[in-house]
Amino acid sequence: MSDKRMNEIDVKILRMLQKDARTPFKEMADHCNVTTDTIKNRFIALKEKGVIRGSTIVIDPKKMGLGNLVILGIRIVERYSDSVLNMIKKIPGLCVVTKVIGEYEVEAIFLLGDIEQIGTTKEIIEDFPQVKSVDIGIFVDKPLLCPKNFEFD
Amino acid sequence: MKFDKIDNAIIKNLKVDARTSFREIARKLKVSPDTVSNRFEKLKKEEIIIDTTVVIDPSKIGYSFIVRFGIKVKPAYSSQILDKIITIPSVIVASKIVGIYDLIAISVARNFQHLCDLRDTILEMPYVERVEIGIWVKTMELSPQYFLI
User: d(Cα B32, Cα B36) in Å, to the nearest integer?
Assistant: First the structure.
């Protein structure tokens, strides 16, 4: 992306798609004063470069009967974070698991059905011999996405 | 609200690719594109589908890490503070939470200075009592279908 103007178009495309992933190429083209083909090519290039990983809908899990988003803060015996990560990966309902520099060694976010399932999931993780403790945070209401998700230069 | 075959198909298809054309979904279901379009609008109106968005890789646009802020606030002020946190540009998702913190915010950060600035911005908000930071490293299994980073 050596062409400066192209960079500006890329940013515009990303911003528009963050707000509404279904924005038609034609609409984006009009907004940027370029042809629809230019937008299409930039879009494909952004996908090929991995800048755009995909597109999706944000749903309200509760209205889908999917229950609760839960974050687990996990303290573990040091040096074992990789094996704990791999074990957590296999637990149903997982959205994301990560190593952390901070209060906890590992954090995981799950989408779980009910309180009982939250309890069971916590117990499964507590049963790992490398795990010292598990703290729970349950998301209240639906998580809010920043309108533009995040900005970039 | 009860979901039927059409609702489920719309949600399933758009979760994987929000740009899937209504015509394509309609063809699979053997209904008209208008039916799909109307249902989509209804799902949005009922706030079952909150939004459609692209999933961007933060590392490709100059962000070095993802940070989780755990925020303790003065009781009864969490909604007010949440409204402010959601306007911070690099915050991806924020929510009230029961348990370890009062509020949680997940953000991208360009570098260490940016991370400190973000923490200070939150700390300087009235009624915020404490901000704890967890820097996410080696993050795996991001489910692009739901969790948006």
Answer: 7
pTM above 0.90, yes or no: no
* Cα B23 versus chain centre, distance: 27
Instruction: List CB contacts (< 8 A) between A149 and chain B.
Output: 53, 56, 92, 148
Binary contact (A100, B58; C-beta < 8 A): no
Asked if the C-beta of B107 comes within 8 angstroms of chain A's C-beta atoms, the answer is: yes
Q: How would you write the pLDDT of chain B (149 residues) with one tens digit per residue?
A: 678 899 999 998 998 899 999 999 999 999 999 999 999 999 999 988 888 888 888 888 888 888 999 999 998 899 999 999 988 888 888 889 998 899 999 998 989 999 999 999 999 999 999 999 999 887 764 544 444 43
How much is the ipTM here? 0.76
Q: Is residue B132 located within the same domain as residue B94? A: yes
> How many domains are contained in chain B?
2
Residue A22 DSSP code = T
**Distance between CA atoms of B70 and B105, rounded to whole angstroms?**
7
Q: Which fold has domain A4-48?
A: Arc Repressor Mutant, subunit A (1.10.10)
Smallest Cβ–Cβ distance between A53 and the set B14, B70, B144 belongs to B144
Please give the residue range of the domain that contains residue B102.
58-136
CB atoms within 10 A of CB A18: 25
